[in-house]
Amino acid sequence: MHCPFCRHPDSRVIDSRTSDDGLSIRRRRQCPECGGRFTTIETASLNVIKRSGVVEPFSREKVASGVRKACQGRPVTEGDLAMLAQKVEESVRQTGASQIDTNEIGLAILGPLRELDEVAYLRFASVYQAFESLEDFEASIGQLRADHRADSNPAESE
């Protein structure tokens, strides 16, 4: 790590701490040349392979902005979107892959979004599951209703 003050090509780690979410490490460093101290944040890289083949770093903000469109007019706060994006990132990181396809991210969004708001879920699912007809919507709504019945009558689902 180059020193940001004198550009010396080496530095010594003085202190390391994991972040609250456990996804990054904060390191306090000191330059042996000029004595300057600085902080670095290290994260495991997670890249997204877009449909065009372009590879870019994963972004929680892109997840939130994509879901924000489906949540338009719904009682969903920015905090809700931030939590959803965090859940999606944690889910994707648990796969252990360093690169993930955008379609897999879309599918990873569906579960947490369904818990957050079913109307937004249907809007989002219609894109990612490529609904082509009213029957696709009806089938998805039927599944939501069946799941509600199973949740409200656990003895019947056994």
Automatic annotation (TrEMBL):
What keywords are annotated for this sequence in UniProt? ATP-binding, DNA-binding, Metal-binding, Nucleotide-binding, Repressor, Transcription, Transcription regulation, Zinc, Zinc-finger
GO BP annotations of the record are: negative regulation of DNA-templated transcription
Q: Which domain of life is it from?
A: Bacteria
Q: Name one GO molecular function term.
A: ATP binding
- Pfam families assigned to the protein according to its UniProt record, in alphabetical order: ATP-cone, Zn_ribbon_NrdR
| ZnF region ranges: unnamed | 3-34
Q: How is the cofactor bound?
A: Binds 1 zinc ion.
What cofactors does this protein use? Zn(2+)
Where in this chain does the record put each ATP-cone domain?
Answer: 46-136
- PROSITE patterns per record: ATP_CONE
Tell me the function of this protein: Negatively regulates transcription of bacterial ribonucleotide reductase nrd genes and operons by binding to NrdR-boxes.
HAMAP family according to UniProt: NrdR
Family recorded in the similarity comment: Belongs to the NrdR family.
UniProt name for this protein? Transcriptional repressor NrdR
- What organism is listed for this UniProt entry? Microbacterium halimionae
